[in-house]
Design a protein that fits this description.
alpha/beta, Rossmann fold, Helicase, Ruva Protein, domain 3, 3 domains, five-stranded parallel sheet, 19 helices, 14 strands
Length: 465
């Protein structure tokens, strides 16, 4: 049975709370600061209710605040619920600033207090699971900062372990923002090539006229302004791994040149005639449907089978269940240190909002929102409005179908597409066509947002600034 410590000097309230809570919890009681600290040190309960007006001066909150300070010093993760009178409201708020979980004003209504206590225990359990998973991953998995316990991610971790020791080409698929480069880095770090370089390049971010030179290098004088010989990414990745992100953006000419390398392990610089032999592993990634691209003649079938010896499909964040909260905790721990902010955690409402929001921008959007929340938060707890997720209806989702009928009679894939389309239209309209601001809100890059607008054939008036 879960233990709860009740720190209260009024015998009647002590009896009332013990009677009301003993069916659900093992109740430990204390009536002053010294006995409370001793009882806490002995039992280390997850949740404590604390009356601020403790003896010897019941009208003075100093003993209660000192007790809070000592409890949190011993176990900062403890959820301390302040139970105080109306005249102590100011000190109750001060206790929240010091790290208390919540406060409740007397007279005590046990039904209301039970709800707060249950939430406190639930949040403590979530945070405990998060810490355990962090420890497990740091010690045993260590996948370059990736965490996850949903079946889809556990399967990916297992696949990484199996394929890392080989030199097989890997194709990573998944929506934008799901962490494809992290998976590629994890494969590299667990491979025999880990001492060699990991060289990433985004094939969709470089103009086609420059991409060939970026990939394969060029000889002096091969084109205007080619004043000296330059090595390309392939040569820099010798004895290591070359990560080709957005491989679906390669032109057919570059696809042919890549195919030759995969077949013969040779290539030529732009303007060169000499074959160059290198030893590099190719890992590719894309967020587009390459099977459809092959049918439309935009991607070579022979290249597809060469790069997808091993295929890894990363689930979207909305498909990852409790991973959303685990990732939120990881980003909170990381960025509160980086930004030097004393943030204790998320409110219950913020955790619920994180759970319900569909995260069209996936892990990247979650990370961006938590960074923003930590920077803008004016208390030590992250609330839904800090994340831009206030209210039952998540910000950015049009409230034109409150009864949900828009999603009746459609497949899950179709419903997701409709929701993604609605979010894009809402964000662009909200920012009056400003693509930069809309992409920041959605947690995606501007090129990705343009791709999504084209994907859904949206007629939207857009502007860059």
């Amino acid at each position: 049975m879960k233990q709860i410590l009740i720190v209260e000097d009024d015998p009647d309230i002590q009896s009332q709370m013990k009677w009301g809570l003993s069916k659900e919890y093992e109740v430990v009681q204390a009536k002053d600061r010294d006995s409370a600290v001793k009882a806490f040190s002995k039992t280390l309960p997850s949740v404590v209710t604390l009356d601020l007006g403790l003896p010897p001066e019941a009208d003075d909150s100093s003993e209660g605040l000192s007790c809070l300070r000592e409890i949190l010093k011993k176990a900062p993760e403890t959820k301390v619920i302040i139970v105080s009178g109306n005249n102590e409201r100011e000190n109750a708020l001060k206790a929240i600033q010091m790290g208390a979980y919540d406060y409740y004003l007397k007279p005590v209504d046990l039904n209301e207090l039970k709800v707060i206590i249950r939430r406190a225990f639930h949040l403590h359990e979530l945070e405990s699971e998060n810490r355990k998973l962090h420890l497990l991953l740091d010690r045993e998995i260590g996948f370059e900062g990736m965490i996850g316990e949903c079946p889809g991610m556990l399967k990916i971790f297992e696949t990484i372990q199996k394929v890392a020791s080989t030199d097989a080409s890997v194709l990573i698929t998944g929506e934008s923002g799901t962490g494809k480069e992290l998976v590629a880095r994890a494969i590299h770090e667990k491979s025999t090539r880990k001492k060699g370089p990991f060289v990433p390049i985004n094939c969709g971010a470089i103009p086609e006229t420059l991409l060939e030179s970026e990939l394969f290098g060029h000889e002096k004088g091969s084109f205007t302004n080619a004043y000296a010989q330059q090595n390309g990414k392939f040569e820099y990745a010798d004895k290591g791994t070359l990560f080709l992100d957005e491989i679906g953006e390669l032109s057919t000419m570059l696809q042919a040149k890549l195919l030759r390398f995969l077949q013969e392990k040779k290539f030529q610089r732009v303007g060169g005639r000499k074959d160059i032999d290198i030893d590099t592993r190719i890992i590719a990634a894309t967020n587009i449907d390459l099977v459809s691209a092959m049918k439309e003649g935009r991607f070579r079938e022979d290249l597809f089978f060469r790069i997808s010896v091993i295929a890894i499909d990363i689930p979207s964040l909305r498909e990852r269940g409790n991973d959303k909260k685990l990732l939120a905790g990881m980003f909170l721990d990381r960025y509160k240190v980086m930004f030097k902010k004393k943030i204790k955690g998320f409110s219950w409402e913020a955790l619920e909002a994180i759970e319900k929001y569909p995260w069209p921008g996936n892990v990247r959007e979650l990370e961006n929102k938590i960074q923003k929340a930590i920077i803008t938060a004016d208390t030590n707890v992250i609330e839904p409005h800090n994340l831009g997720l206030e209210g039952q209806m998540i910000t950015g989702i049009p409230d034109e179908n409150p009864d949900g009928k828009r999603y009746e009679g459609v497949t899950l894939k179709e419903a997701r597409a409709r929701l993604e389309k609605d979010l894009i239209e809402s964000a662009v309209e909200k920012h009056r066509g400003n693509i930069k601001r809309a992409s920041e809100e959605l947690g995606v890059s501007r090129p990705t947002l343009y791709d999504l607008i084209g994907k859904y054939s949206l007629t939207i008036k857009i502007k860059e600034d």
